[in-house]
Specification:
The chain has six helices and ten strands. The chain is of the alpha/beta class and about 240 residues long.
């Protein structure tokens, strides 16, 4: 049986008995999903609140819904942050989609030294917007009540600052002696996974991150692309928490 689709709405709109969906979300609901009167849909603010609704009426560019029930999910614990070195081309959006589907709570674009792609000036704002848009679409498809946060790109000092306050920080390294699957995963706090670029993390960056508290660990016998390594690592970690 097909599950009702997810759409995005403001928190305040989810608290009333009726609401009207407009703009892109309404167009998607009516043109792509072809929702009709009497069909159900879920609306979320991406910050834990989900409203179960039924379509009450349709008109040009608008979808009227009656709210049947509203629930609020607690924020996920432990939280998972993935520091993702910026891949070239559209592999960044692919990485974001996969990480969102798996369950990452924060995805930090990292301007690592060996990144081929460079976010500068207007390009940085446009690239960040593409990552954020990819995350929202993947979160809706995954039926997530909490959408990932994607802050502006971070440099090495910003990543180090995050590592120092984390409950657990792991630097993915294909030649590390420790296996990610063998590391003890905390039940609470922030878990950070650091994914380097295709060319690997520069030795100086690696030394700095390890000195800040990150532990090097390998995923397995094969070397994954930067766009998929984070999602695979997140799966290994989350499978050992109460979240999965």
């Amino acid at each position: 049986m097909t599950q009702p689709p997810f759409f995005v709405a403001d928190t305040a709109d989810l608290r009333g008995e009726r609401l009207v969906l407009r703009g892109q979300e309404a167009r998607h609901a009516m043109a792509a999903r072809r929702l009709a009167v009497g069909e159900q849909a879920y609306l979320t603010d991406g910050a834990g609140t989900v409203a179960q609704c039924v379509v009450a009426g349709t008109r040009s560019g608008e979808l009227e819904l009656s709210v049947l029930d509203v629930t609020t999910e607690p924020s996920p614990e432990p939280s998972l942050t993935v520091v993702q070195a910026i891949p070239k081309g559209d592999r960044g959006e692919l990485a974001v989609e996969l990480l969102t589907e798996v369950g990452a709570d924060v995805i930090v674009p990292w301007a690592a030294g060996r990144c081929v792609a460079q976010w500068r000036g207007e390009r940085a704002a446009k690239a960040l917007a593409r990552w954020q848009s990819a995350s929202v679409q993947a979160a809706k498809q995954s039926r997530r009540a909490w959408f990932p946060q994607i802050p502006p790109q971070a440099d090495l000092p910003a990543v180090v600052s995050r590592v120092r306050t984390a409950a657990m920080a792991v630097l993915l390294d294909p030649v590390a002696p420790a296996r990610l699957a063998d590391l003890k995963v905390p039940a609470a706090g922030e878990i950070i996974l650091i994914v380097g670029p295709e060319g690997g993390i520069a030795p100086a960056e690696q030394e700095t991150l390890v000195a800040a508290g990150a532990t090097g660990a390998r995923l397995g016998p094969t070397v994954l692309r930067a766009s998929s390594a984070g999602a695979m690592a997140a799966s290994v970690v989350l499978a050992r928490t109460s979240r999965w």
